[in-house]
Amino acid sequence: MSGLANFLRRIGAMAVDGVWRLGFATRFLGLVLLYSGQSLRRLPLTIREIYFSGALSLLIILVSGLFVGLVLGLQGYDILQRFGSSDALGTMVALSLLRELGPVVAALLFASRAGSAVTAEIGLMKTTEQLKAMDMMAVNPIARVVAPRFWGGVISMPLLAAMFSAMGIFGGWLIGVVFIGVDDGAFWSQMQAAVDVRYDVMNGVIKSFVFGVAVSLIAVFEGYDCTPTAEGVSRAITRTVVSSALAILALDFVLTSFMFRGQ
Amino acid sequence: MMSRKTLDLWVGLFVVLGFGALVFLALKVGNFSGLGGNATYSVEAPFDNIGGLKVKAPVKSAGVLVGRVADIRFDEKSFRAMVRLDIDNRYEFPRDTIATILTSGLLGEQYVGLEPGADEAVFKNGDRVQITQSAVVLEKLIGQFLFNKAAEPSAEPQK
Amino acid sequence: MAIESPELPPLVSLSGVRFAYGEREVLRGIDLSVHRGQVVAIMGGSGCGKTTLLRLIGGQLKASGGTVEVAGHDLAGLGNADLYALRRRMGMLFQFGALFTDMSVFDNVAFPLREHTDLPAGMVRDLVLMKLQAVGLRGAATLMPSELSGGMARRVALARAVALDPMLILYDEPFAGLDPISLGIIGQLIRRLNDALGASSVMVTHDVHESLGIVDYVYFVSEGRIVARGTPDEIRASADPFVHQFVNAEADGPVPFHYPAPAIAEQLGGGA
């Protein structure tokens, strides 16, 4: 009986803690936006973070995109040829990448590559009192450290997702057209007929932008909020990856249900 | 720490690649040139029944995409469906053009077909299509067929 | 050695300051003042609240009672912008230096100059090299913080803390974890920089002998109260049992060796 009571108590405590953290994260987002003006006026700070978050994630994004495209080409061809419509391979590859796989997989990779690095960096700065030192030098750490990293992530994410999709379509084309022998013209023309720029491409970009905001916020928040010990930093990194993944998938469902209702 | 110049170079490359990918998606994968941001004019077409027609469905003439369905609403006065068609400015249609709701393939999506008439005057923005033909509703068709079948044998004993 | 000027109000003055972390009361009514030009040490055992005291003076924490005044401003009434304006005239040396690990020694010292002034690059360079020269590390300007020893890192942090020629320098355990040579160097630097800049310094430490050699005034803190105060000579001659225990590093005294517990006879051989 007391075991059950304890269990319930722990669940309750976790729920309260979760709501508290959500509230703090929201207030933190407000602070980041408030101080963004100051830090965006000094563009080199943000450019540096675009390098660390974006440019350094290029390789993993391009390689993963290529492999996902190759797999889509193989699986798509296998399924479509059962209905005698292997010409629609381009359509299938392009739509699944633009609407779902591009934004979602790129965001998941981004969270584990760049998000965790940002959390580690900010967490370490907190642990070694660098943030406090900055604050004592009358330099606001949110404006100087947090906001540039946040915006670096937000700017990088849609670009990375676009590269992922483009690379994936290239991979699908490579398998479908070059190796299997689907007609090149049919591949592109069917794709072009089916893909609507505003409906499919723009919605994909919007998705990746939203994911970029979510992942960047989680990454800077977990770093800023971590317990200032080595163990605290490592726990914060784990939390960044886990919460980012959950947030991406949950947001993806919500956005998809708004965007693609098959009118 | 690398120099500012190298860093800017990498970020520049990254941004160029990113926007390059976006342009590729917009132009090569999607069909931006087709009917993306071109100016359109709209005409309204009343239908008795639109079947499964959806907003954004294609408007075709002679099989060529000339526009999209912009809006569908129910007109309380005439109890008919009002379908607004956005048609590309490049194409002009005579005022006695017939709008028909068609289905691509047996079970494909529904679209609006325009069959040009012979009138000298052409549609202008806000005009109304005079002659329309409703969607073929499969249930109605089957119902009619069954009704006819049922009517036949009942007539026979009277002979 | 200090220029005591009674007609000027003290630079830092605390009166009746109380502070609590949640339920736990750390400071229970502290009165303390630092005059211009003085180097003041706050001493006490670990966990007695002396670092909290330093944070209150720096405005990182807000007192739950009493007033903290720095340069005539009551910190409780200052908004964020005013607090930052005040902090530009303060320097703080953190326990382990807190150097920015992604910047070179040069960039670390240049950081406050670049953030707060629009000086041309050449002038920033000269100022930084002068500050580094003052701590004897001009030759280490291009090194990264990871390449420095603990004592060198502390000296670089000191150069950074005085980059804007502050009126008040705060030191959090400046001697912790240093070898005797580095310890002596840091001690001399604290005194020299204070006098050269005409600044005042507040130092939180538990290193008695090193600090008694360089400071003008000492406060002893225990259990959230000031238990003793005086010039180094007065402290050395003090008959106060707490000061005596602290200065001579005796294990038992007013600060008990044993954590409060029931009598040992009651706990041993109990069994039944």
Explain what you see.
The complex is a heterotrimer of chains A (263), B (159) and C (272). Chain A has helices at 2-40, 43-53, 58-80, 89-127, 130-136, 141-180, 184-194, 197-225, 230-259. Chain A is an all-alpha fold and 263 residues long. The relative contact order of chain A is 0.16. Chain B contains 3 helices and 7 strands, in the order ααβββββββα. Chain B has a 7-stranded mixed β-sheet with strand order 1-4-3-2-6-5-7, with no helix packed on it. The N and C termini of chain B lie far apart (103 Å). The model of chain B has no long low-confidence stretch (mean pLDDT 81). Chain C has 272 residues and is of the alpha/beta class. In chain C, 35% of the residues lie in helices and 22% in strands. Chain C has 10 helices and 10 strands. Chain C has a 6-stranded mixed β-sheet with strand order 6-7-8-3-9-10. In chain C, strands 2-1-4-5 form a 4-stranded antiparallel β-sheet, covered by helices on one side. In chain C, a hairpin with a 2-residue loop joins strand 1 (12-21) and strand 2 (24-34). The model of chain C has no long low-confidence stretch (mean pLDDT 84). Classes of the chains: A mainly alpha (263), B alpha/beta (159), C alpha/beta (272). Chains in contact: A-B, A-C.
